[in-house]
Write a structure and sequence with these properties.
By secondary structure, the protein is α/β, with parallel strands linked by helices. Helix 1 packs across helix 6, helix 2 runs parallel beside helix 3 and helix 3 packs parallel to helix 4. The protein has a single domain, classed as NAD(P)-binding Rossmann-like Domain (Rossmann fold), CATH 3.40.50.720. It is globular, with a radius of gyration of 17 Å. The strands form 2 sheets. A 7-stranded parallel beta sheet has the order 3-2-1-4-5-6-9, with helices on both faces. The chain has a two-stranded parallel sheet with strand order 7-8. It is built from 7 helices and 9 strands. Helix 4 links the parallel strand 5 and strand 6. The relative contact order is 0.14.
């Protein structure tokens, strides 16, 4: 029998990328605050991530969670990131533990380390180089409150793994676009994540064995300044796309 997977924030771009390739691979329970406008696989739950009771109820009978829901705006104010991204993520981790869920894949973000890009000591990261590549061992350096909330989610995941043995992988997602990388935007090309690589990466998050992991979610771009070595090694991630192929 296929794993039963709860996908929060199912209507967003990351959710769309995952379902485009993996609709038939799992038994899906999809959660979003708005009802669907198109046919989607599995069961759909209309609920807000800030509703603890609804989140806990959605966990019943679930094997694994992909947690995407939250306020995705880089400029989101504190009140919103606190309620939607921090409290909501806490509800997901606690609900997973209470329901006996085996693993949670948490959608973190490049914004959790965005301030490295504005540090004058950081080398030029828009051309390929070997001397500077973030690999997940560095401390978070958020450049906005949204990034703060994602760093907090990573720390919550660490706690729930250490305290309760929950398998947790945090994926610092880069720039997800459909079809091709951003045009005339070097930073976006360096951190590009294609739709099919996104689906493959989260598929590996559901299938691999791990304790607590923090990986970068980008395609195999020539210009990358995030390392995907850990995702390859621990998850078996094998990206197929490269932004340089679209030059």
């Amino acid at each position: 029998m296929a794993q039963s997977v709860l996908l929060t924030g199912a209507a967003g771009r990351v959710g769309q990328a995952i379902l485009a390739d993996l609709a038939d691979e799992y038994e899906w329970r999809l959660l979003d605050r708005e009802p669907p406008t198109e046919e989607l696989p599995g069961e759909f739950v209309v609920a807000d991530i800030t509703d603890d009771d609804a989140v806990y109820e959605a966990m019943e009978g679930i094997d694994a969670v992909i947690h995407l829901a939250g306020d995705p705006r880089p400029e989101a104010p504190w009140g919103s990131v606190l309620a939607n991204n921090i409290d909501g993520t806490h509800a997901v981790f606690q609900g997973a533990v209470d329901a006996g869920v085996e693993r949670v894949a948490f959608a973190s973000s490049n914004h959790a380390v965005g301030a490295y890009e504005t540090d004058e000591r950081t080398p030029d990261m828009y051309r390929p180089h070997d001397e500077f590549r973030l690999d997940g061992t560095e401390l978070p350096r958020p450049g906005n409150l949204y990034g703060v909330s994602k760093a907090a989610g990573e720390t919550l995941g660490r706690y729930y793994h250490d305290e309760y043995g929950l398998s947790v992988v945090c994926v610092r997602i880069g720039n997800l676009t459909k079809g091709h990388p951003p045009i005339d935007y070097e930073r976006g090309q360096a951190m590009w994540l294609s739709y099919r690589d996104c689906a493959h990466l989260f598929d590996r998050c559901l299938r691999a064995e791990y304790g607590y992991e923090l990986v970068y979610g980008i395609s195999d771009n020539d210009r990358k300044y995030y390392s995907i070595d850990r995702a390859r090694e621990v998850l078996g991630y094998e990206p197929r796309d490269n932004s340089a192929a679209h030059d």
